[in-house]
Amino acid sequence: MRHTTNRWVFLGAAAAAAACVLLLAGAPRAAFGDNLTTPQPNGPCGLVFHNFPRVLNMSWTVVPGANGYQVEVDCKDCKVVGKWDSETPAGAAMFGVTANSATFTFPGDNQGRWRVRATQTASAPKMSAIQAGPWSTWCNFAFKTGSNPSGPSGGYPPGWCGINLASLSKSSGHPGDTFQMIGTWTASQGTKEVCINKGGVHHLELAQPWNATVLTVRIPVGLQPGTGYMVGVYCQPIENASGTVSSSGWKPFEVLPDLTTVTNPKKM
Hints:
The protein is mainly β. It folds into two domains: about 120 residues, Immunoglobulins (Immunoglobulin-like, Sandwich), CATH 2.60.40; about 100 residues, Immunoglobulins (Immunoglobulin-like). Helices cover about 10% and strands about 35% of the residues. Strand 7 and strand 8 form a beta hairpin. The radius of gyration is 27 Å and the shape is globular.
């Protein structure tokens, strides 16, 4: 009788364990990457760019937990007239980056749009290599450069003043710091305005006289720290302008905390 009782106890325990396994196997489990939030484009969106080469600068908000991002750049009429590249078999351009910014050389004077999503690299066996979060909304733009300024036609888009931003000496700085904008700026400033934009236009101060290849500028005091700022030069004043204003193209910049507002700790 004792043997029989133990046998049923053992069988009952085994059945309960099996049921527990079945319940665990059938329970829904969150997929790797489900915890990733949606990045938000910092822009600029909805603008017409006149810079040549047609370098598109993109940036977006940082997603906690992400160790990479996938960016998709789509062009209308580039492969099939009347269609976005994503609507064709060839598809839109897609690439991965680890930072929350990227550049892309756009193929022509067309309408374009880009979007981004955060990714995680698998950290456990039997997981696919990369899991991705949801796509952001599309950030729309367009290029209108006219003919290649260095080409045989020598044509320039209306309003463009022949300037181009090639690089920055640094991509971040505190208010009051100086940095250099390297590019083609022409011999005199004229109506050109040097700006750092985010949710509005903020003028950069020239720390040294205007130069045809290097502009030394100072970050305005009072800017809120953060990413998503874009640095560039307009051909004409942007305030009260009608239509689009030609520019040099833009590069992302991060404003660091203002050191002059940091209070010193009290001495004990």
